[in-house]
Amino acid sequence: MSYSIFTTFTKYTNKQMKNKKTLVLGASTKPERYAYKAIAMLVEKGHSVLAIGQNAGEVAGIKIQTKAIPLKNIDTVTLYLNTARQRDYYNYIVEAAPKRVVFNPGTENPEFYQLLKLNNIKVEVACTLVLLATNQY
After folding, report:
1. Going edge to edge, which strands form the sheet with 122-125?
2. In the chain, where are the structural domains located?
3. Among the residues of 1-137, which ranges form H helices?
4. Quick one: which of 121, 119, 82 has its CA closest to 104?
5. pLDDT value of position 17
6. CB within 8 A of 24, min separation 6: which ones?
7. Residues 3-51: tens digit of each pLDDT
8. Domain 19-133: which topology?
């Protein structure tokens, strides 16, 4: 009996410790898109998710917003926007003061890296899906 209580407590504690509130920027309702897959996997892994994309919709119970929304206590911003489209969000992301910004493949942006580092925001050039799949998120 104590084993199951310990196991339940451990699962609960692990879930609480690993929950990283994440903004997916460049969200999509198209299942073949990596942003869609990232939202689904973030939810599956127990993370709180906010999503902004060009088109409104829903993925894994998460509503995709089409405009900037107020952000509080964001741990991670994961980008699925090309470099040119990122510029519109520079100030928005810096003002949200996340702990880190993940630049997924195809979103690399040295100009933005510098701005983030000047504002003490960690830059991570990685794939969100791989980080999640390997428990390194």
Report:
1. 57-59, 62-65, 49-53, 22-27, 76-79, 100-103, 122-125
2. 19-133
3. 2-18, 34-44, 83-86, 90-96, 110-118, 128-133
4. 82
5. 52
6. 35, 38, 39, 42, 49, 50, 51, 52, 78, 80
7. 444 444 444 444 445 799 999 999 999 999 999 999 999 999 999 999 9
8. Rossmann fold (3.40.50)
